[in-house]
Amino acid sequence: MRRELVTVAACTALGTCAPQLHIHMQGYLNVDGNTGELIEIIIQMAVYADFPAALNALTQLRAVLAEQEVPSAAADSPGCRG
Q1: Residue 1: DSSP 8-state
Q2: Who is most buried in 12, 24, 62, 64, counting CB within 10 A?
């Protein structure tokens, strides 16, 4: 589970690997990770990488949640609007 989380952080920081980020977010949720931890990682990457990369990651997270139909208040928050 930690390996997926670290991979999500790295892909978010790169900012240019959306398909890989999407797959690793799905993988993280499939190994009993939760949406809140993904959002925390994305927020941290906004500080350490850059804000546009974090926005791209939030867009990918919304797509993953829409595919899995996971009800989440975070997915409907104003900060995640596309």
Answers
A1: -
A2: 12
* Closest by CA position to 1, among listed 57, 41, 47: 41
Q: What does the pLDDT look like over 5-22, one tens digit per residue?
A: 999 999 999 999 999 999
Q: How confident is the prediction along the chain (82 residues), in pLDDT tens digits per residue?
A: 889 999 999 999 999 999 999 999 999 999 999 999 999 999 999 999 899 999 999 999 999 999 987 555 555 555 544 4
The tokens 């690793």 sit on which residue? Answer: 24
Q: Tokens 């939760």, residue? A: 34
In the 8-state DSSP scheme, what is residue 72?
A: -
Which tokens sit at 34? 């939760």
Residue reference for tokens 């975070």: 74
